[in-house]
# Entry
Amino acid sequence: MKRFEYKVPGGKLLRAKVEVEDGKIKFLQLTGDFFMQPETDLEELEARLIGCPADPAAVEKAITGFFSAKRTVMAGACPADFAHVVNQAIRA
Amino acid sequence: MPNRFRFLDLKVNDAYTNMAVEEAITKARGEGRSPDTLRFYMWKPSAVTLGYFQSVEDEVNLEALNHFGFYLNRRISGGGAVLNSEKGEITYSVVLKEDDPRVSADPVESYHYLCQGIVEALAVLGIKADFKPINDIVVAGKKISGNAQIRRYGAVLHHGTLLVDFDAREMFGVLKISKEKLSDKMIQQAEDRVTTIRRLLGRQIGFPEVRDALEEGYRRALDADLQKGRLTPYEEELVNQFKARYASREWIHRR
# Structure
């Protein structure tokens, strides 16, 4: 399991725990002290990323694509921050 | 015209009951079965309360928690872990309808509005405090109150903790403080980030006096007509229903 933590400047702390197998995300957990509503969107995002190629462009596309189809309200973090922490965890 | 609120005065309960009461009021308010509500409460035994999205292993030193005999508990709202100490803080909540014109859809604006009760309460005590986005209240840069909100059931629940005193050995024994977070604020010692009412006043102010200041602070900030009340039978029923979930391992250890 690889992990990374990232404090968003002026925002909140994000943590990613990730397992990669055969170049794809096999497990992902995102945690932290950010705010997100509806809160079920986070679990949906984690599930959506399973099987996603473990490379920065694919991860970023998957995450921004996920949120652009949603009406998630966030404080202390934005979609790019989630992409950053996941990509850094993959590289860790 | 002042705004009418039901006021649930300071009461001490265990963590699971406290969280179940928050959700019960929120649900009943959203359904139009309860009025706008202001609630003050405390915790016994002390408890570490995690934000909804936090993981137990990253935030809590379970060995220390067991050593002190504290409970572990998770909110429905996001935000950070706090130690709800039975001897060091007062917790408060405000519950309004989600479409209440006083509450902005913008999270930071709605925090700002609902945190003013604490800023005013501290002013009553002679302490100059400021709202610090996103969800903190600080005195000279040091945190004295942390807040969280959730919108659910058609209502908004705003809750937070106000530090009266703290025992660094307890707080930093049970809470793991992230190095990333500290380095961002360029502060070496976690203890330097927080302050308390007793420290600022330089005296052992009692909880009744803090409670009175809180009541006056909210009265001013929300232009509130506070009517002392109690939970309705419907809310009591919900509390009994929700309590087991808050006490369950599945809920507490979900992340």
